[in-house]
């Protein structure tokens, strides 16, 4: 396992992040605590040090399990959690990115996680009703108090993240150091605006669903043993999955390892959402996989992805704008 600094901070995080959305059996297929312990221990033995959860995962069970598993070794891990999603659907102020929900959500997460501080606190989803100035100031206040150390934002348009960081820079508040987005060979939308924006601000990027919801594991045809049925997968996604499986056969590794290696080589921090010890071991095997340039090119060609306007237009007109200087 190698380590990277988390954005423009000195915090060092492992190049694979353990996602704890699977921790707990509430609300569907998940992992009981004994399996979670095995998953965490296997990840730790490989050198992993960052675990990601959220206040709403498994109805709160995920944070509680993480808190129990990290008891007596909290300082060894970079713990991140998220707020935004409602704590109480009957309370009009139970959710959102406003100061009140941030405070009550943070208190809840700290209690469940059995800790005095959160290493990385994420705004989970854009709340259209709360001014971003309110959110950034509230986060900065929590950082000043030492309740959180760094902040990040997930599932939000690039223009709003950029505005938030610019406001924070001008007003002397803490900027977002991390961005969390869905990113995989079957979902490259983040390449249009979000990833370039993150690179310009020096933000770390954690990628959720790097296996495309299971499509890229090569097991989508086993509908009786998993969530996916080949008939429910689009022809485009099926073509990508077949390209991944072919590359895996060529390299002598598993499809999941190919998909994770591709994401890692794109500069993001893939999040592993394993439900069993066998799955986490397979995922960690991606650390030993380096995709040759020609294989990466074949995989990306299979996605048939186009960045679109305005990026394509700007690239196409560069000679018109700059003349010979564009060569």
UniProtKB/TrEMBL annotation:
UniProt KW keywords: Oxidoreductase
Pfam families linked to this entry: Aldo_ket_red (PF00248)
Keyword Oxidoreductase in record: yes
InterPro entries membership: AKR_Detox_Biosynth, NAD(P)_OxRdtase_dom_sf, NADP_OxRdtase_dom
Domain NADP-dependent oxidoreductase intervals: 15-302
Keyword Membrane: no
Gene3D superfamilies per record: NADP-dependent oxidoreductase domain
SUPFAM superfamilies xrefs: NAD(P)-linked oxidoreductase
Record-given protein name: Aldo/keto reductase
Source species: Dactylosporangium vinaceum
